[in-house]
Design brief:
Order of helices and strands: EHEHEHEHEHEEHHEHEHEHEHEHEHHH
CATH topology of the largest domain: Rossmann fold
Strand order of the largest sheet: 3-2-1-4-5-6-7
Oligomer: single chain
Distance between the termini: 19 Å
Number of helices: 15
Length: about 375
Amino acid sequence: MSAVHYVLAGGGTGGHLYPGLAVADALRQIQPEARLTFLTTTRPLDRELLSRTPFEQAEQSVRPSTLHPLRLPAFWWHWRKSVRAARTLLKERRPRAVLGLGGYAAGPAVVAARSLGIRTAILNPDAIPGRANRYLARHADLVVLQWPQSQRHFPPGTDCRALGCPIRREFVTAERTEGCRRFELDPDRPTLLVTGASQGARTINRAMCRVWPEFVSKHGAWELLHLSGPRDEEEARAAYAAAGVPAHVLPFTHEMPLALAAADLVISRAGASTLAELTALGKPSILLPYPYHRDRHQHANAQVLVDAGAAVVLEDQLDPAANAGPLLEALSRLTDAEDREPMAQAARGLARSNAADDVAKWLIG
C-alpha cells in the first residue's frame, strides 16, 4: 500500500513557510509514513528553509497579482502555467488534502485541488486577510484563523475555524534556563529581546541603539539580546561599543524558541507567526508594527494582543530619533516583574499551542 500524500502550497517568506513546516512535522508525528510536497516560489529563502527538511519541494513560476496593465499578461501566463503544473502534480500524487499557506503561491494548488475534488484548507494567521486569501476562501473547504476577529472579513457561510497559527513544538517546550545558557545570558538578570524578524528592522535597530545606553544607565540589571538582521549587525555592534554598554548582538538565529524563552520582555514587529510564538511562551511585548503595508494588517494583529492586555503597541515613525522617546518610556514602565506578569498571563490566554496538530488532524480527515 502506497504512503498517503499531502501537498502544502505557499512560500516566499518565513511567515508563510514556518507554519506549513509546523503542520508537516505534526503530520509526520501522526503518520510517520506520510509523504509531503511543498509547492513554493522560486525565492532562495524557500530552498534554504526546505533544504533542512526531509520534505520534497517543487517550485512554481507564479507571480504576485497585479493591477498594472503592462504586467497583467505576464501574471496570467505564469498563473495558468502554475495551475496546469499543480493539476499534473496532484493527479500524479493523488494527495489526501492540500493546504494553502497564504499568499499568492498558495493559489494554483488550491484552485487545482478544488477542480479535482481534493479537500483543501488555507491558513489565515493575520487579523486582516490578504487579497490572495480572500480570493482562495471560495475554493477552500476550511479557512484556519488565528483569531476569531478575522471571520468578519470572509463571506457569510465560509467555514472559518479559529484553530490558531501553527508553530513549531519547540516554542511550546523551550525553557528559560536553556535559552540563557545558549545565548550566554545571566539567568538571574532580566533579559530584553529585540527582533525585527529574519531580516531585521532598521528603524527599530537604530532606535534601540539610542535607547539602550540611557535605559541601562538607570536599569543596569537588564541584559540585551538584539537580533539585528544581517545588514545592521556591524552598525549595531559599533553603536553599543561606542556607547560603552554591553549587548549581545546577533544577525539572526535558527534557535528562536530559545531566544524567546530567555526573554522577560520582547520588542518586535507584529507578524502573525511572531505573535503566535509570543503567546505560546507567554511573553509580554512592545510591538512596532511594520509601517508600510497598505492594509496595516500588522497593526490589526498587534491590536488583538493590546485588547487582551498582552502587549503595548507603538507607531513606527520611521525616524530613529522620533521612535526613541516612546520606546524608552514604554520600556521604563515595564521594568518591574509585577507590571509584566499580567501581560504574560494575558499572552498565555491567547495561545493556541495545538494549532499544528489540529490542522494536521483536519487534513488527515
